[in-house]
Amino acid sequence: MNNSEKYSFKHSQKNYPVLFLREKQKLQKILGEIGKRVVIEHIGSTAVPGLGGKGIIDIMVLMPKARIERGKELLWENLFGSCLNDSPDRLFFYKDYAQKGKGKGKTRRVHVHLTSNKKNLEDCAAFKDYLIRNPLAVKKYAEIKKEAAKLCKGEGSLYRDCKKRFIDKITNLASK
User: What is the domain count for the chain?
Assistant: First the structure.
């Protein structure tokens, strides 16, 4: 998946929850015994019905700090690539899948955020839940994401910067 494809706005699809559940089952299998006491949560735009965005299934895995290194090894062994982290207590992985059927020739991307910091998960869940309950916020965020996709020209840090103020504001509202 190239950056111009990755940083484009796609309309929401009804199959995102199913895609997440498939990935969750794969992660549970990959993590095996150490994955029995972890939390695996669907986060990001695909977790909010009707939002739209990059179409990437974002997943956060919360596990005890003592298990993080083994979790990292297991993800690497199962061909999850790693990217730079913008947070010292969150490891970031991705995996691309060739699509079949209607999407043949395209790529489906999954992001896995591995953390032992419960606040990371709580903030992401609060943001997602707030959007699910507030259609006007979803509409506003979709507009911001569309504009960010146009402005960033494939540059991830610029894309994130364009959204940061809104995300911080909603996360603060939702966490109260």
Answer: 1
